[in-house]
Write a structure and sequence with these properties.
This protein has helices at about 170-185, 195-200, 205-210, 215-220, 240-250, 295, 335-340, 355-375, and strands spanning about 5, 15-20, 25-30, 35-40, 50-55, 105-110, 125-135, 145-150, 160-165, 190-195, 230, 255-260, 265-270, 275, 290, 300-305, 310-315, 320, 325-335, 345-350, 380-385, 395, 400, 405, 410-420, 430-435, 445-450. With about 475 residues, it is α+β, with helices and mostly antiparallel strands.
């Protein structure tokens, strides 16, 4: 890692370094609300990051810490402090003359490895690199706040006029990188980083070639040009659209990582998510401080699906569903791990145009999996190391103040992670997680039956109308 000056005697697991116009780098102290490093599954890239930093205006060892943040420097027409705009390109595609390039400052969030006792060890590494885009004051005295934003924000501001014909993921990444470097002047050193042959040499259009269909051609193709070419237009598309497209068709996750002293790496991987056992039996960090995720999410435990009345007629190797019939299939899909935890079932009923019990079971299991995958909003608090991030999966049991319940664990997927370092004795470095359910489809159990369309019960040979006793007048029948 590069050398820096400033607040060099700090042993906090997280820190912030701002890069100077002269090529130097200064580490800043953090106070009060400290440093919060956000990582989320949102935006055009797979992971979007942001840092909130509170620093002292003046302090021991330096007359004025804010002088190292160029966004705090007043201009002739603006008082202190000022807020930099989200877009840094003028009408001609360059920086406005009143905001020279040095005003757009880059900054890093750095992290120190820590041992099992929480002490920092080894050399720091750069975890996140972005640009200072908003500054202001905090309540109280002698404190100032600024934010570090993700470089991906430029993607939505840069037009994309490009086309691809039988392109690989590497080809698309190179085109994105070149347009990105040309479209802004904050990050001019951008390299491409993938996980090797598995991504770079695989054709981006393989899913179409393996299973061609009309819907695939309409989605990925261009009329009169064939299904292997895709075009982006400057009057409609930005680099954010290209990134979203290659992530979908290439089955990769794309985001920006720090590279070198000042540069970026446009990173693409298939699945680098890690799995962590946060149960007490593991005895390995990170450790759970609090886990109320399941009770906050209140997910479904089962789903009941009712099909359409009709009949399924076998024709050789095919099955034909007809709308004629007086019975319908009903299937129930259940996720036993949740049933055991809740002590009962929380069921939702839905309908689908299926007339076969096998189809009903498959559809019910699929819909239950999708419904549970969409459940989010659960929260956990863990120790800060090792650093968890979006897409990671964890296995955990309910816990409060470090005491865990004696119940079977459940699996979760991380949607957002906020790593916090607050300089106070009673607020240790920690990670706040927002999680969703991580469902193992192999554990979903299904059962089905055929129901009478007129009664909703099991079908019988008797006509329900014949079993009804007719009568007239008072006291009938």
């Amino acid at each position: 890692m590069y050398d820096y000056t400033g607040h060099t005697d700090c042993e906090s697991p997280l820190g912030v370094v701002v890069h100077q116009p002269d090529g130097g780098a200064v580490r800043l102290p953090v106070v009060n609300d400290g440093l919060q490093f956000h990582e989320r599954k949102v935006g055009p890239t797979a992971i979007t990051r942001r840092a909130e930093v509170t620093i002292p205006i003046e302090g021991v060892g330096d007359s004025n810490w804010t002088r190292h943040v160029t966004a705090f420097t007043p201009t002739e027409s603006e008082p202190l402090p000022r807020v930099l705009p989200q877009a840094f390109r003028g009408d001609d595609g360059d920086f406005p003359s009143e905001q020279p390039a040095p005003a757009i400052q880059t900054a890093d969030v750095i992290g120190h490895p820590i041992d099992d006792s929480g002490e920092t060890v080894g050399e720091p590494v750069v975890l996140f690199r972005g640009y200072v885009a908003a500054v202001g004051s905090r309540e109280g005295t002698n404190r100032a706040r600024f934010r570090i934003y993700d470089p991906m924000k430029f993607l939505t501001r840069i037009e994309a006029g490009m086309s691809f014909n039988r392109a690989t993921v590497q080809d698309v990444l190179r085109a994105i990188r070149d347009a990105y470097v040309d479209g802004q002047r904050v990050f001019t050193d951008v390299v491409i980083d993938t996980d090797g042959e598995t991504i770079g040499q695989r054709r981006a259009f393989e899913p179409i070639l393996e299973d061609p269909s009309l819907s695939d051609i309409e989605l990925f193709g261009v009329p009169d040009k064939g299904q292997y070419e895709y075009q982006f237009s400057t009057n409609r598309d930005t680099l954010a659209d290209v990134v979203a497209w290659i992530q979908k068709i290439g089955n990769v996750r794309v985001w920006f990582q720090p590279s070198g002293d000042r540069g970026l790496a446009l990173t693409a991987v298939q699945d680098d998510a890690a799995e962590y056992d946060l149960t007490p039996e593991s005895n390995d960090p990170p450790f759970v401080i609090q886990n109320n995720a399941l009770y906050e999410m209140r997910p479904l435990t089962s789903l009941r699906l009712k099909g359409n009345a009709g009949a399924t007629i076998p024709l050789g190797d095919w099955k034909v569903n007809t709308p004629f019939g007086d019975t319908y299939p009903e299937a129930t899909a259940t996720y036993p791990p949740l049933v055991e935890r809740f002590g009962g079932e929380l069921t939702q009923t839905t309908t689908e145009t299926v007339t076969d019990t096998d189809d009903a079971e498959q559809t019910a299991a699929k819909q239950l999996k999708e419904a549970l995958d969409e459940v989010s909003g659960g929260s956990m608090t863990t120790t800060i190391a090792p650093m968890l991030r979006p897409f990671d999966r964890v296995v955990a049991t309910p816990a409060c103040a470090g005491v865990t319940a004696n119940v079977d664990p459940l699996s979760y997927e991380i949607q957002e992670a906020v790593h916090s370092v607050v300089p106070s004795d009673d607020n240790l470095p920690r990670t706040e997680l927002s999680v969703s359910m991580s469902v193992d489809p192999d554990l979903i159990e299904t059962e089905s039956s055929v129901k009478d369309a007129r009664t909703g019960d099991s079908p019988t040979d008797n006509d329900p109308l014949e079993e009804f006793q007719w009568g007239y007048g008072p006291g009938a029948p």
